[in-house]
Amino acid sequence: MSPSAQTSGSQSQHRTVALAAMAGTTIEWYDFFIYALCTGLVFNSLFFDGLGENSLIISFATIGISFFFRPVGAALAGHLGDRIGRRAMLIATLLLMGVATTLIGLVPSSSSIGTSAPVILVLLRILQGLSAGGEWGGAALISVEHAPAAQRGRFGAYPQLGAPLGLLLANGALAAVTALTTDDQFLAWGWRIPFLASVVLVAAGFVIRRKVEESPVYRELKESGSRSRAPLAVLFKDHWPLVVAGALLFAANNAVGYMTTGGYVQSYSVNHLGMDPTTILIGVMVAAVGWLVSTMVGGRLSDRFGRLRVYRIGFLIQLAWMFPFFALLNTANIGLVVVALVLYSFGLGLTYGPQAALFAELYPTAVRYSGAALSYAIGAVLGGAFAPMIAEALQSSTGTVYSVGVYLVGVTAVGLAVTFVLKERLGVPLGDAGADEKDEQAALTTSSNP
């Protein structure tokens, strides 16, 4: 990238772009998480009630089904994002998510329209999956590609904040509704309010994102005439090992994160420990604040100490805290549960904050959107897709929640191993002159990791 393109813009301009990306990802993840949270609290009884004792597991499975469409969304948005620009995809994915979420709030229950109800619900969830698959790559890249080279971790952490902020908003919305309605009212109509409210959030996000300028890195690529006509073909021909490595890295973070974002902890606390729904939702909100803070800390630390070193520290914290976390959760004491969740979120944030900068630095400009989006989407399939369902199945079959801990420790260990395969590329130029090497040794190492 040319020096002028890499350093242009003031700090306030960089911050404006990053905040716009964060606003959009927050709304996207609010929409995505509100479904996951309602899965164990509402959908199992309203849409899958005819499945008896398997209704909860099948309900959680619908979360996973949407993940299989994330790579499709990532491929579509990645191709278009590398061909026509990052900004257009930011707006398109936001609108798709908003429409799907609002319509979910209008779907009648199975008692009203029979088997059509769960079918419609799953189809709308698939649309959410398509949107989520394409959203993150655009938001992450427009933030990182606008940022100064020495602060990519910092500005790249802003779109990452959308996940904890979305979780905070989703839990807050449900907590407010459950507190203001009776159990019967909540099941009858109260749960629909947070879905219908999405239309207001999406309208606000649309206005914000329209003001964002195209990435200077992409503008330079366009002006140079170096855009690839088939970015996906180039990606899989020359850079497929990076896609695999990035996917495994994110899977280790995503599986752990989906214990709360996917609704498993909330469902387990209410259905197995007998905790009050509003209480546990508020507890997860507190943890979301901890996740938010540690995500920003992770991004900033990665600018100073390197992306991979911060990842390793985060994964080691995840490994060390996994079984104490479930021990404190089993007490059903809200004070201890909050402590468990906050400390749980700290390792999660350190393995999430540096991600946008790391993924951007892995790929050359011409295939960067496709590569980052697909690594993210495939990692989400491997890690988060069926994590809540697997956790519920493990706990039910073994009779102990510690079996879930064993599963999460194994996934985390894989992510930790991947950090020793990738090469640190802190501050590498992002334009044609720097990161566009076709040699995989530019980002992968089989011997050392400088």
How would you summarize this macromolecular structure in one to three sentences?
The protein is mainly α and 450 residues long. It is built from 23 helices and no strands.
Descriptive terms for the model:
transport; disordered N terminus; 450 residues; MFS_dom; Growth Hormone, Chain: A; mainly alpha
Textual characterization of the structure:
This protein is an all-alpha fold. It has one domain (3-442): Growth Hormone, Chain: A, CATH 1.20.1250.20. The protein is built from 23 helices and no strands. It has helices at 3-7, 11-46, 55-67, 70-83, 86-104, 110-113, 116-146, 152-160, 162-180, 183-190, 192-196, 198-210, 216-224, 231-238, 240-261, 264-271, 277-305, 307-329, 334-350, 355-362, 368-383, 387-398, 402-418. Helix 15 (240-261) crosses helix 21 (368-383). 58% of the residues are buried. Residues 1-8, 433-440 and 446-450 have low confidence and may be disordered.
What is the C-level CATH assignment?
A: Mainly Alpha
Q: What profile does the largest beta sheet have?
A: none
| Beta strand % | under 5%
Global geometry: globular
Radius of gyration using CA atoms only: 21 Å
CATH architecture annotation name: Up-down Bundle
For the termini, the CA-CA separation is: 23 Å
Q: What is the third-level CATH name, the topology?
A: Growth Hormone, Chain: A
Q: How many DSSP E strands?
A: 0
Tally of contiguous helical segments: 23
CATH superfamily: MFS general substrate transporter like domains
| Overall average residue pLDDT | 85
What's the structural domain tally?
1
Give the % helix. over 70%
Topology order in helix (H) and strand (E) letters: HHHHHHHHHHHHHHHHHHHHHHH
Protein structure class: mainly alpha
> Which ranges are low-confidence, i.e. pLDDT below 50, for 5 or more consecutive residues?
1-8, 433-440, 446-450
GO cellular component, one term: plasma membrane
Keywords: Cell membrane, Membrane, Transmembrane, Transmembrane helix, Transport
InterPro entries: MFS, MFS_dom, MFS_trans_sf, Sugar_transporter_CS
GO molecular function: transmembrane transporter activity
